[in-house]
Amino acid sequence: MSDYRLNTKCVQAGYTPSNGEPRQIPIIQSTTFKYDTSEDMGKLFDLEASGYFYTRLQNPTNDYVAAKIAALEGGTAGMLTSSGQAANFYSLFNICECGSHIVSSSSIYGGTFNLISVTMKKMGIDVTFVAPDASEEELNAAFRENTRAVFGETIANPALTVLDIETYAKAAHAHGVPLIIDNTFPTPVNCRPIEWGADIVTHSTTKYMDGHGAAVGGAIVDSGKFDWMAHADLFPGLTTPDDSYHGITYAEKFGKEGAFITKATAQIMRDLGSIQSPQNAFLLNLGLESLHVRMPRHVENGQAVAEFLEGHDKVESVNYPGLKSNKYYSVAQKYLGGGGCGVVSFVLKGGRPAAESFMKRLKLAAIETHVADARTCCLNPATSTHRQMTEEQLNAAGIPAGMVRMSCGLEDKADLIDDLKQALEF
Ligand SMILES: *Cc1c(COP(=O)(O)O)cnc(C)c1O
User: DSSP label at 35?
Assistant: First the structure.
């Protein structure tokens, strides 16, 4: 399968049925697995043989789908998690512990920002935030001797900033630590961060990968390129024996290609248990089978809507990386080959009252907090997700009261523009 092109991998990677086996991925709806002897099962617990014993750690349906996502990203191993939040937490906590420090882009999803700056801080893990377009010098200045990972989002949700992945990767590697990239918005169809130097890639599969608003989920992919043993003193969890696993040293036993995901499964999934249900993995795979067909339409609709809004006299500003006027246009061309996703944000002239009237008039676009769905949806943060904030706080956070975030779905772009036209007649 590795020789096939991305479009083919979306449809067929991860699962190849043998003679007479089901064509579609089987949903193994079983918490447990049966063995003939205790010795057989003992080998699984010792990680001497691969196989399944309990769905809190691993399930065949999940593994088929994780293998597809790993193939799409160009990685060597992958795993599914119950949510994107779990994927980002596991990817960081797999190499960080109390006393560690993370360098992260400041322009990231709000849930991840809280995870890193509040919850992980309570665990004794510190963070320094830097701008997504930070220079090499600014990045280098953020590192400490206890830095263990660098984190960023290819296209940030919802700020739509585009990360300079190569610059981030260079700084991470100069300090002997991996770069973890959340690639949720572009998906591997529009960007494969590993090709630009990222070591670990994460996803909220809840978004475009599922694409139909059906199942919450996450994924982690390892590039298999980071040499843990070359920086053994920084990553003792991977390079010294794990007492909770009969003294296995993951980086020795599973090499660069397998150590990260094996540890995250055998240790972190075992202890924290944020597994994706096999049923959700099946739904996710249905989404993946058409990801390469859907993403270009999301981008086409996003670009058309952004261009329309930019020319409208009731619109103060439009933020979409595919617009020539956008600060990240050239970075987006380099890494995404265009706008990269279907999410556009814009600010209406007239502030809060204008946004309220506009939202009330929408007919086709639904009001939702979700993004990256087949159906177009809009959100006015000031009256929903950020309604506890004052006008001054909203402006300081770069979310003025008149801002609307629009996630362009797969409908006809002419209908989306007609809906905007009539909604703007407030
Ligand atoms: C939604 C989202 C997450 C969190 O994912 P959940 O599946 O909602 O837990 C993480 N990162 C990005 C970029 C997201 O858009």
Answer: -
Of the candidates 190, 246, 205, 174, the residue with the CA atom closest to the CA atom of residue 86:
205
SS3 of the chain: helix, strand, coil, percent, to 5: 40, 15, 45
**Amino acid 175: pLDDT:** 98
- Report the separation in Å between the CA atom of 157 and the middle of ligand 1, taken as the mean of its atom positions: 8
DSSP 8-state symbol, 231: G
One-letter amino acid at 177 equals V
Measured in degrees and rounded to the nearest 5, phi and psi for residue 102 equal -120, 140
- Residue 284 CA to ligand 1 centre (angstroms): 15
| pLDDT of 258 | 98
Q: Is 83's C-beta closer than 6 angstroms to any atom of ligand 1?
A: yes
The residue whose C-alpha atom lies closest to atom 7 belonging to ligand 1 is 84
The reported pLDDT for the residue numbered 387 is 86
Q: Indicate the DSSP class of residue 265.
A: I
Give the type of residue at 167.
T
Mean pLDDT of 173-189: 98
Strands 366-367 and 377-379: parallel
Q: Which residue has the tokens 């070591």?
A: 199
pLDDT of 47 above 90 = no
Average pLDDT of the chain to the nearest whole number: 96
When pLDDT is cut at 50, 70 and 90, the band that residue 46 belongs to is confident
Q: Find the mean pLDDT for residues 242-251.
A: 91
- The C-alpha R_g of the chain, in whole angstroms, comes to 22
pLDDT at residue 390 greater than cutoff 80:
yes
- Tell me which residue has its CA closest to atom 2 in ligand 1: 204
> 276 CA distance to ligand 1 centroid (A)?
14
- pLDDT for position 17: 97
pTM for this model (two decimals): 0.97
Domains of the chain (ranges; CATH) run 6-286 (3.40.640.10), 293-423 (3.90.1150.10)
Task: Give the whole-angstrom CA distance, residue 419 versus residue 334.
Answer: 32
Q: Report the atom number in ligand 1 closest to the C-alpha of 205.
A: 7
C-beta 111 within 6 A of ligand 1: yes
In this structure, what token pair is assigned to residue 346? 């814009």
pLDDT tens digits, one per residue of 101-118 = 999 999 999 999 999 999
pLDDT on residue 246: 83
Distance of CA 423 from the midpoint of ligand 1 (Å): 29
407 lines ligand 1 (CB under 6 A): no
